[in-house]
Design a protein that fits this description.
The complex is a heterodimer.
Chain A (H helix, E strand, L loop, with lengths): L1 H38 L2 E4 L2 E4 L4 H8 L1 H34 L3 H11 L7 H12 L4 H8 L13 H26 L2 H9 L4 H29 L3 H7 L6 H9 L5 H22 L9
Antiparallel strand pairs in A: 1-2
Helix pairs in contact in A: 3-7, 3-9, 3-11, 5-10, 7-9, 7-10, 8-9, 9-12, 11-12
Chain B lengths: L1 H30 L18 H8 L1 H34 L5 H9 L6 H15 L5 H22 L3 H12 L4 H12 L1 H17 L2 H5 L7 H9 L5 H31 L1
Helix pairs in contact in B: 2-12, 3-6, 3-9, 3-11, 5-6, 6-9, 7-8, 9-12
The chains are: A mainly alpha, B mainly alpha.
Subcellular location (chain B): Cell membrane
Family (chain B): Belongs to the binding-protein-dependent transport system permease family. CysTW subfamily.
Protein name (chain B): ABC transporter permease
Chain lengths: ~290, ~260
Amino acid sequence: MAQATLETRENRRAWGFVTPALLWTVAFFVIPFVVMAAISLATRKGRDIVMAWNLDNYITFFEKAHLLKGLFVSLEITFTVTIISVILAYPLAWIIAERVPQKWQRMALILAILPFWTSYVVRSYSWLLVLAKNGVINNALLHIGLIAEPLELASTRTATVIGFVHFFVMLLTLTIYANLVQMPPNYRRAAADLGANGFQVFWHVVLPLTLPGIMVGAFLTFVLCIGDYITPQILGGNNELALPQVIMLQLGRRADFPMAATLSIILMAVVTLAYIACARWLKMERT
Amino acid sequence: MISSRISKIASWAYLAVLYGFIFLPVAVLVLFSFQDGRLPVPPFNGATLKWYGEVFADSRLMSALGNSLMVAIGSSLVACVLGFCAAYGLARFVLPASRLQRGLLVAPMTVSYLIIALGLLSTFNWVGVSLSLWTVGIGHVVINLPLCFAIIYASMGDHQKNIERAARDLGAAEWQVMTQVSAPMLMPSILAAFFLSVTFSWDEFIIAFLLSRFDVTLPVEIWSMLRSGLNPKTNAVGSVVFLVSVALLLILELIVFRRTAKK
């Protein structure tokens, strides 16, 4: 009896600590999400939003080519970026973990992710300086005579992909490196003793053990890349629009809030699918 | 022997190329912020500090910078306090559905900022809250709270539990245990969470863009500068922002480094 009252009192105190954060999350995350989901079921009448409680917006999404295309453009860009970033980052993380002397590793890693901290908007702008018609690359290529006319590099999908890859190579290097240094060297030694050659050791031992790091990084890349407006807007231009650009277009020029909400819900559904696909590598462990 | 030398050379070459790729845009940005001319592209005409002068003389940029600092520090403080209390409650007490609660608290981490911003925008419109720096701050707490909670929760080990129990046995009230025993012990991770939040909020664009109206933060102001095309002044302000972020990172690194050195 005394034990029970003590526990209730303890419990009440514990709720006091947790409740403010929970309330904040419910008020400014859960409820807004519900409101947005409800608005996606509404229609636009002039500047007003009228609750219709139907799926018309979703049907429109699948019927209108320019809306559906946004999703496909986003998916294509995101997959391209994720794959290229993993391929570029893995060797970098490996070289830092294996070839760079122990005492310089921390330094090498910090250097590798330093430009990560340039402002988001500024990072895309910097790539514009490099890729523009009168930018650094065209200048260099013209100078050494490799090309006669400046290349159209900015305002293309390639530019968007380069801008994204730059960002995510840094992120993936970090997650893959963290996995590589955790791996006990004995595993590889054992495999080599049992007769595996360098490639076999990598393919059957190292790669499977670092897969969690790759998947965590790849999932983060996917989520951040598919939801980003800035990079495709600054570097990709308006030739082909990614889904976030289409969403912003609904907000701005068309003032179609219900359609923007619908597209956001679809974007969220895609991210959820990606999460389910990666879920078994993304277990949150408490150490 | 030869193959190992080749692989060694290949490794260093790869390292050099990738570092070149990673640093290329930053180097170009900073170099041409000193451009003595109207365009931040080659050829480099010589160095001048004129554009930095213009940045610091621009009252709109400076007020945006002030707004950014205010929102970043304010929202990070709120996120840290809420995150610390929640972590304390969930790590030290047995609560029903604690897994669900933890899941709810970190859930915003898996959602695009654009969606969080749109949700808040819909809700503020619906309730009739007018947009201001306050609404931006609320949005930034939403994205930083999961981070603060996760960092602080992960660092609450069982060895600290015993020290807290000792303090309680010696007659300390719960709030005294929390503020005078737990918080100081966890200070490195609290500070790490705080500085990480500040850098995220300082840099965040889409929430600040959609949830502000007249007073804007620095990334939004830089965004509107971009409409005028390539300009050395944008390079200068970008370099300043980079420097501030690196400074914050250095502080963070020193704190985390000090902690690992102590262990």
